[in-house]
Write a structure and sequence with these properties.
mainly alpha; 299 residues; 2 strands
Length: 299
């Protein structure tokens, strides 16, 4: 059976005022479950500034010793395959650069949302986290191969694309379990979410990302990762890259809820990225080792 996405609004602005206000109140309460750590906000601000100095970034991260330890542990994992063990942040920043350190810090900060075990049916919370890291790594790969967008930005957008799922899991657990029990390979998750919640994880995730003051391209990629063919904004490349990465990871078995029910992006998305059969074959060949390294980053 071929799945076909159903047209639907994916931004709060597209909704009628009464429903928008109701959802904004609900989302605001859910956002409190997962506030972005102050250190992550500071790292984002510094790495977006042209005038930031390496020592400023290092000092900001060093205010959280646990964050430092986790960054260094992940930095020395097989994901980066460094020839020499890195033991201090100054060397790490010099070696990797601002944006890669930002991505690593965001990975560590976000991992805390998924640390408490949780499962229901086909769903495992740790598997959702592994899926998110995998999509981030795959998005970086897709961006690099097609030469569209910034690979470092693609990683962050991929990492956060399913932010709404973990928020629903933690805030509306009974409804979430009903959603998990109802999903199947022939029905996209967002359709089931609409049935039980009247909104989906993409809408919730983009709202929270906006409240966290994340870059607009990242917010749009979260909002449209299931509806990439409908996107008409200025950040099309990033939206398309994340949609393709999400589909490829799910198809490869790295699913968010334990079931592969992600619809393939429409042909115009692949065409817009300049992805033909040859480039897709290159991505697919590199995907397995890329996801293998991503697993070490997620652990």
């Amino acid at each position: 059976m071929t799945l076909a996405p159903q047209p639907m609004p994916v931004t709060l602005e597209a909704l009628e005022p009464a429903r928008r206000e109701s959802l904004e109140r609900l989302f605001g309460r859910m956002e409190q479950v997962a506030t972005l750590p102050v250190i992550a906000q500071k790292v984002l601000q510094l790495t977006d500034s042209e005038n930031a100095k390496p020592d400023e970034l290092r000092e900001a991260i060093q205010t959280d010793p646990i964050l430092v330890a986790r960054i260094l542990r992940r930095l020395n994992s097989s994901y980066y395959s460094l020839s020499t063990k890195i033991t201090d942040l100054r060397t790490a920043i010099s070696l990797l650069g601002y944006r890669e350190i930002r991505n690593l810090a965001m990975t560590v900060c976000m991992s805390r949302l998924y640390e408490t075990p949780g499962h229901h049916g086909t769903y495992r919370r740790e598997a959702l986290w592994e899926h998110c890291v995998a999509v981030g790594a795959a998005a970086r790969l897709v961006a690099r191969v097609c030469g569209r967008g910034m690979p470092e930005e693609a990683y962050i957008a991929g990492l956060l694309h399913d932010l709404g799922i973990i928020l629903i899991d933690q805030s509306l657990r009974r409804h979430f379990c009903q959603i998990v029990s109802s999903i199947n390979p022939n029905t996209p998750t967002y359709e089931v979410e609409q049935q039980f919640l009247s909104f989906d994880h993409a809408l919730l995730g983009s709202f929270v990302a906006m409240k966290w003051n994340l870059p607009e391209p990242v917010v749009d990629a979260i909002a449209y990762h299931h509806f990439s063919g409908d996107y008409r904004g200025p950040h099309r490349d990033l939206v398309h890259v994340v949609a393709v990465a999400n589909y490829l990871c799910s198809r490869a078995g790295w699913t968010s809820l334990g079931v592969h029910n992600v619809i393939a992006p429409p042909d115009q998305v692949y065409a817009g990225l300049g992805l033909d059969q040859i480039s897709l074959a290159i991505i697919w060949d590199e995907l397995e080792p890329t996801l293998g390294r991503a697993e070490s980053l997620a652990t």
